[in-house]
Each structure stands twice: as structure tokens, then as C-alpha cells.
Design a protein that fits this description.
The chain is mainly beta and 288 residues long. 3% of the residues lie in helices and 49% in strands. A 9-stranded mixed β-sheet has the order 1-4-5-6-7-8-9-10-11, with no helix packed on it. It has a 9-stranded mixed β-sheet with strand order 12-16-17-18-19-20-21-22-23, with no helix packed on it. The chain has a 3-stranded antiparallel β-sheet with strand order 13-14-15, with no helix packed on it.
């Protein structure tokens, strides 16, 4: 996945990008009020991760995910000087379901949960005791697969792993879409693949259908950036931060009341080489 300054891209609409007249695939990079904003585009449409970075410290200022078409869903997070300040959960229907804020000392200062009339109706009509933030993905049939489309809900058995160039393929072509599998803990896991490689958001659902994990993968480093876990009541249980090289950097755990109960920082085992000077330093939380 290439990275391109927004100066070289055209944005005919807010959530679409073109390069030299063709739909753009890659990351756009834009300076925005002293921060660096990075967005992922596939075939000209926003999809996947969107985040802003403090270029001086390398820490994240905000992180969110977008569906194909630019709708925000899942966890949106904001940090101040590396400390978590806000969590906002948007469901896959576009409604904000949870807003939490923390004081500088880690004390929970706001925990607001919302339900719309449509959610209440859906819960009543479905007979379920809850409406999930994000529905567990449904698997597509093999007959509906098309290597030219960005797909969701594909079982790993429908694609093949090419160990030579480290890509998942479908009909010989690098696969673009989501793989859905079951973990050893009985959870449903969905991870995004771009150009045949794990790249972008990861989600896990408990057997009950409740979302319990959100993270980021980046080839070839694996886990990068923020990973968050919730218990089945929807309480934020932990925040784990990896840097852009996959170094485990920060652990945060929250108590039953939502307050920060434990925080631990780790030194990186591998360093980032500055592309301009070659000088080595700690890597940013996510790539730029």
C-alpha cells in the first residue's frame, strides 16, 4: 500500500480520492493543524483506518475505522500527550452508542450510553436482549466471490496462502476484503486484507454476538497501534498500544467503574530509522 501526499490527489467528494484521473488505492497523508492525518482508500473510496498523529512525539491523537463509503463505525479514540481521553462507539447503523471521557489522572468523568427508537424497535422485533454495536459478519458463498471487488465475510478456506510472496490469493489474484474465522476461544474474528496482506482493522465478537476486541494489523509487523478490549457489558477493559514496528509499548487496564487501574510502559526492542537522516529513534504508534 503506497502513501501519497494529499497535494497529489483529487477529492471530488469528501470520501473519494483520485490520482491522475484514476480511483486511488493507498494512504493519503495530509497536514491538518499541526497534526498529520492519514486515511486509507481502496478503489477510490475511504475504507479501513483513519488516524491523526502528532509528528513530533509520534503518538496518536485520534483513531477510527470507516466502512467502504466512509461511514464511521466501531471504536473512535482520542489521546492527549499519549494518554487516553475519549472513547466513542458508533454502531454499524451510524448511531453513537457510547461516549466516555477520562480526566488527566485516568478517572472516568463521563459514561453516556444512548439508544435510538430504531434500535429499540429492532431489539423488540428480533427478540434479542441487546442490539450489537456491530453485527457479526455473515459469510459470503464461494459463487459470489469476485477478485475484482472488495469483499466482506469470506472464510479463509475460500482463499489460498502464497508463501512465496506472502499474500492471500483468490483465483490467482491478490485478495481484497475481509477474512472471518473462529478463534480458539470461540470468538468470531474478522480481519481486513488489502492486496492480499493483513492490513487495517481487526474485530472480534464473543459467542453472544457482542463486540469484544478492536485492533490494527500492518504487514509485515503484525499488531500495531491501539488495541482495545471490552467485556460483555460494553465496559472498556484494556488498551494495549503497539508502535509501527510491532513493539509492545503501553498496557492500560480499567476497573469495573471505568477508571484507569494500571498503566505500564515498555521500551522498544527495535528502532525506527529516519528516512531522511538515517538516525534511529523510537517508532511512531502508527506509520507515516
Amino acid at each position: 500500500m503506497r502513501k501519497t501526499s494529499s497535494e497529489f490527489l483529487d477529492f471530488p467528494e469528501e470520501m473519494t480520492a483520485f490520482m491522475q484521473g484514476h480511483p486511488y488505492t493507498g494512504y493519503s497523508m495530509e497536514e491538518d493543524g499541526g497534526e498529520l492525518l492519514i486515511r486509507s482508500f481502496v478503489h477510490g473510496v475511504v475504507v479501513g483506518v483513519e488516524f491523526s498523529i502528532d509528528p513530533d512525539s509520534g503518538s496518536l491523537v485520534s483513531y477510527m475505522n470507516s466502512t467502504q463509503g466512509g461511514c464511521t463505525f466501531g471504536g473512535l479514540y482520542e489521546w492527549q500527550e499519549g494518554c487516553l481521553r475519549e472513547e466513542r462507539i458508533t454502531d454499524d447503523r451510524g448511531s453513537v452508542r457510547v461516549v466516555r471521557e477520562w480526566d488527566p489522572d485516568g478517572s472516568l468523568s463521563l459514561d453516556k450510553r444512548s439508544r435510538t427508537v430504531s434500535q429499540e424497535n429492532l431489539q423488540r422485533d428480533s427478540g434479542r436482549d441487546f442490539v450489537p454495536w456491530i453485527e457479526t459478519p455473515k459469510l459470503l458463498s464461494e459463487s459470489s466471490l469476485d477478485p475484482r471487488r472488495f469483499l466482506s465475510g469470506v472464510h479463509p478456506s475460500m482463499v489460498t496462502w502464497d508463501a512465496l510472496d506472502e499474500r492471500f490469493r483468490f483465483c490467482g489474484e491478490a485478495f481484497w476484503g475481509h477474512l472471518v474465522s473462529t478463534t480458539g476461544r470461540g470468538r468470531t474474528r474478522m480481519r481486513q486484507l488489502l492486496d492480499g496482506r493483513e492490513e487495517g482493522p481487526v474485530w472480534e465478537w464473543a459467542p453472544s454476538g457482542k463486540l469484544v476486541l478492536q485492533g490494527v494489523l500492518h504487514h509485515p509487523y503484525g499488531r500495531v497501534g491501539p488495541w482495545h478490549e471490552w467485556d460483555e457489558t460494553g465496559r472498556l477493559a484494556s488498551e494495549t498500544i503497539y508502535d509501527a514496528l510491532g513493539n509492545h509499548m503501553v498496557d492500560r487496564h480499567f476497573d469495573d467503574a471505568g477508571n484507569l487501574a494500571h498503566e505500564q510502559h515498555h521500551e522498544p526492542t527495535s528502532l525506527w530509522a529516519d528516512p531522511d537522516t538515517g538516525r534511529q529513534r523510537p517508532a511512531p504508534w502508527l506509520w507515516f
